């Protein structure tokens, strides 16, 4: 199940950029953060794919969603210019950004390569 984040829950579960200048991931397992908007067509196409992945990788990765309209400060903090954009957050390494509504197999490849998680 994907979970929507606010700035407060983002600070708690992902990264508190007001306290930490350097990236410090707060999660216990890797995460994908989907930056989206309700009006965005490609975002709507990506949503069911992320729901599927959240079930298939349950307990191995978290999938969070951030509404760029509601959480403009978070979007600005990560320089989000186009949506959908996904931030892949591995444990102990810097996050990597991917832009666009990627197909499921490509997201799975990034999960394996960047997050180092196998199904």
- Characterize the overall form: globular
Query: How many runs of DSSP E, i.e. beta strands?
Result: 5
Largest sheet features: 5 strands, mixed
Give the number of helices.
4
The largest beta-sheet arranges its strands as: 1-3-2-4-5
Which strand-content bin applies to the residues?
15-25%
Family: Belongs to the thioredoxin family.
Keywords: Disulfide bond, Electron transport, Redox-active center, Transport
InterPro entries: Thioredoxin (IPR005746), Thioredoxin-like_sf (IPR036249), Thioredoxin_CS (IPR017937), Thioredoxin_domain (IPR013766)
Protein name: Thioredoxin
Any overview of this molecule?
This protein has 119 residues and is α/β, with parallel strands linked by helices. It has four helices and five strands; from the N terminus they run βαβαβαββα. Strand 4 and strand 5 form a beta hairpin. The longest helix is centred in the middle third of the chain and has 16 residues. The radius of gyration is 13 Å and the shape is globular. It starts with a strand and ends in a 6-residue tail after the last helix.
Short description:
With about 120 residues, the protein is α/β, with parallel strands linked by helices. About 35% of the residues lie in helices and about 20% in strands.
Task: Draw up the topology in text.
Blueprint: E1 3-4, H1 7-13, E2 31-36, H2 41-56, E3 62-67, H3 72-77, E4 85-89, E5 96-99, H4 104-113
Parallel strand pairs: 1-3, 2-3
Antiparallel strand pairs: 2-4, 4-5
């Amino acid at each position: 199940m994907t979970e929507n984040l606010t700035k407060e829950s983002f600070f708690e579960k992902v990264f508190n950029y007001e306290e930490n200048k350097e990236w410090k991931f707060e999660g216990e397992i890797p995460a994908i953060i989907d930056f989206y908007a309700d009006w965005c067509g490609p975002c709507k196409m990506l949503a069911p794919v992320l729901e599927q992945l959240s079930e298939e990788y349950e307990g191995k990765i978290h999938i969070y969603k951030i509404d760029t309209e509601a959480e403009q400060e978070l979007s600005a903090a990560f320089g989000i210019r186009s949506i959908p954009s996904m931030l892949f957050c591995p444990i102990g390494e810097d996050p990597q950004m991917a832009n666009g509504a990627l197909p499921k197999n490509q997201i799975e490849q990034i999960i394996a390569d960047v997050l180092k998680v196998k199904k």
